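--- STAGE predict ---
source: upstream dedup step, 1 unique chain passed
mode: sequence only
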Amino acid sequence: MNNDTFISRIAEEQNITANQVQAVASLLSEGATIPFIARYRKEATGSLDEVAVMAVRDRLNQLMELKERKETILKSLEKHGHLTDELQEKVLAAEAMAVLEDIYLPYKPKRRTRAIIAKEKGLEPLALIIFEQKGVNPVKEAKSFIDSEKGVESVEDALAGARDIIAEIINENDKARARLRNLFFTKAVIKSRVASGMEEKGAKFRDYFDWEEAVAGLPSHRMLAMRRGESEDFLNLDILPDEEEATAILENLFVKGGGDDCTQVKLAVKDCYKRLLSRSMETEIRLHAKEKAETVAIKVFAENLRQLLLSPPLGAKRVMGIDPGFRTGCKLVCLDRQGKLLHYDTVYPHMSEKKALAESGKIKSLCEKFDIEIIAVGNGTAGRETEAFIKAVPFSKPVQIIMVNESGASIYSASEAAREEFPNHDLTVRGAVSIGRRLMDPLAELVKIDPKSIGVGQYQHDVDQKALKQALDDVVMSCVNGVGVDLNRASAQLLTYVSGMNAGLAKNIVAYREDNGPFTSRKQLTKVPRLGTKAFEQSAGFLRIHDGENPLDASAVHPESYYLVDAMAKDLDTEVVDILKKPEIRDQIDVTKYVTDSVGLPTLNDILDELAKPGRDPREKFEAFAFADGIEKMEDLRSGMKLPGIVTNITAFGAFVDIGVHQDGLVHISQMADKFIKNPADIVKVQQKVSVTVLEVDIARERISLSMKSQAEKSGLKKAQNRKPKSKNKTKKKVSSRNTPFNPLAEALIKSGLK
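--- STAGE serialize ---
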């Protein structure tokens, strides 16, 4: 299979032209990135988007792997003297790895199998005679093969060895394997059983203690859950079709009649299926089901990550970031509008009323000193309690308090990147900074953290790590380049994901910026050590310089196209800055005048769009969110409560929602809408603000069931009214009329007359 075959095959599979595939393949081979190809080479690719370009890249890689495997197999066949023109043709014609391996199987170097041992005893002629099924008497034929020196002591020994050889012949027959493979892939059933004595230890897998389901329609999350249970020795799994149907397929292929020799072949068929083919096919179907489940899981993870990275940014505000804690106190930092650390401290508001009152004064003083506009509170341990404390502080002017998802902040604080950024500060300070900056610009901060630590995946540790990394890297790069990067503010970690960049170039940019001051033009990038022409071409369009020498440097217009904008300005007898500011001037531009052999309407229309909104941020506008007052722990929840929440993770079976009680609740897919839905991602997005109704609370198992159905509130309330409250202590407790739980600072402030 040559590259031309690759191109035509991918074009047919993807329903695009061969020229489009060839263009993508050529650009990739030249080192172009996917964002660059999709954004700045539309004429070459026929305006393929990032998804289409990725699909071409991934299929090219798959076909290249197939080609390399074919080359390896052909060398092995030639080395061992098996290669013929016919066999070579079959190998080269194979279009799938499984088919290729079936062709190679009879010639593949093997360990000493039962068939090989039987051949060493001289029983192959007997096996071939019986396998022909021409009506011979197997017993009579077997007598002449008895040879005690070779270990054939009896007729049964001879016949058993012959059947072993026949079983291997059947096992290596590509037609038999193809039909059995089809049966397994269409009709196999996965059976999950609890391992002996593991009922208690494996309680979290009890849904699968006695489970059966057709593997063809098995949802990815169930497959991965059962595989995890098996890997942890709690479950035993089998994936098999009906045995009678499987052996019937083989008998129809190989058994030619009803004579005694045919009976021997029938016995060999049954042995082949049980001992060889069923195991081989089960391994294949397991791998196929695993890969299928992984593909779905990786896709879900990637989409969740995209939504999280593209969360609306607060923007340039003076922020106090707080990493909450009870005994160890709350670590706080004050950041300027660029996220620079100005001050750090620790407060202990949860010790006593007296201490809370004193610490409120410190918080108030720091907010006044650093002119804090927003306070970001991490949502981990003591998060809601700290939020309540902050809300009770008598600020001299309004200060907004916002809860921030701190997943991964501790990972960042202990990372090499954090140590490089804050070498003189400990983990707690770095964590608080991460929380504050995450509110200001989620994308810029989250790229510093391994995506697997952010908490938006589904069985992310069970899937192919190489494939997962590729998918997540693609998403991060897509998001970073889609939003654009401020060249004068970006960290080295953020710059690493810019098209054409790597860690070394990113560090060199930061070092150049520190030594020479802010960049004033994109052209200055060429002065950065080791940043050559190719890196400049790939990266320049995605880097932004605000208030620079050229107003186009703040836009997504690539420097290679500046001459076009200059020509437009000249033709209209105006300046570029006027085109950017005045829509009435832009409306006069006729882009068709600037079409050339190398520049087409797709690029020109992109330029015109960019001139209308230069450097626009595609992310949505930030909206503050607050949890319900007084609902801070699972014990505060009651069935029927309607609460605000924020989506933290989306899976194939539903969405997890943070309602402010330190334990996310699950909205099962059946509870996400009044009508049936197949994909939770069609209903919600990560970080979306939603309204949910509490259906059930299981404190022992730390599970919260939620609903987004319109009738859930009514049904939940009805259920709550009919259910007696569960309580180990039958003593009636006095219920406070307050909507919020006891707050030491609020009580102290009331007593002291400050509130």
